[in-house]
Amino acid sequence: MHAPQLPKARRSKSQGRVVQLLRHNGLSLALFALFAASMIGQIASGLSSYNEDRRDHGRPAVTLTRYLRTGHFLEATFENWESEFLQMGLFVVLTIHLRQRGSSESKKIEGRSECDQDPRRHRQDTHAPWPVRRGGLALALYERSLSIALLALFVLSFSLHALGGLAHSNEIALEHGHAAKTLFGYVSSSEFWFQSFQNWQSEFLSVFALVILSIFLRQRGSPQSKPVAAPHWETEG
């Protein structure tokens, strides 16, 4: 017995919605898929590496769910996340006032850019976000919400990096018969700051490279690039 089929018109409409969803959200979906694939790879390889180290020390292997609660996983994950959110948060804040002539990542050298417009002029715009129409404290927070969110995510990731790193460091210390560290002792150690700075410097270098390279190099079709025919020292804003 055949399963009932949807009418052709309904199938076509449903397919159209899927195509529209992919077209309107393709960038975020692709990036999330890459993140998910990378995270799965990190977890699988991290679990294997962690269990191999435990076997070398005569300890039993752990399950996947147990591994996701270990300092080994938390430290490795959040020491990278903290650098990403720090880099993005500071870049958002720095580009408010600082310029780079010729870079597609900079506002115009002279004059005001569209992002500088006062949202209070749009309080009567029915399509404006709710905080814009509300005004007051809601708007004051909303017009700074991107940097607030990114820096809050940095603080959260930094904290989880510290807690995960402490747990992992103490696990290793106990295996070798050394005393466990306190949270303050770990956060003030060179080990913790070495992990942080090695990630921070790479993030700031990558943003610096993008800002400078976008002066002279182009990528046709990308909003991260100026038009291919644009002069080197033209600043889009």
Structure in words:
This protein is mostly helical. It has 2 domains: 10-69; 71-237, no CATH class. 65% of the residues lie in helices and 0% in strands. The chain has 8 helices and no strands. The N and C termini lie far apart (63 Å).
**Series of secondary-structure elements, N-terminal to C-terminal:** HHHHHHHH
Q: In percent, how helical is the residue content?
A: 55-70%
Number of H- or I-type helical stretches:
8
Query: How many angstroms does the end-to-end distance come to?
Result: 63 Å
**Would you count the extended β strands for me?**
0
What's the story with the biggest beta sheet?
Answer: none
Structural class: mainly alpha
% residues in beta strands: under 5%
How would you state the average pLDDT, rounded?
92
Count the domains. Answer: 2
Rg over alpha carbons: 24 Å
Poorly predicted parts: none
Estimate the global geometry from the Cα principal axes: extended
